[in-house]
Amino acid sequence: MLKLRLKKFGRKRQPSYRLVVMTASTRRDGRAIEELGYYSTITKEFNIKTERINHWLKNGVQPTETVSNLLKKAKIICD
Known about the structure:
The protein has one domain: CATH 3.30.1320.10. The protein is 23% helix and 42% strand. It has 2 helices and 5 strands; from the N terminus they run ββββαβα. The chain is globular and about 35 Å long.
């Protein structure tokens, strides 16, 4: 099963996350199939590729709860 989830990167105490498509069994910082954007927890800034996210969602990729909240905030998916 493919998941749309966050992958951690950045320095210690300054986390940033990349929005990626991965298999559910892959570890958090493992190899991603495709990178679709990023999210900074410190500045609350996020940048995403809407067309590619819609493509993956139409093909059955399941977003995690946190990613789902970000996509609702960006008005990509509705509640």
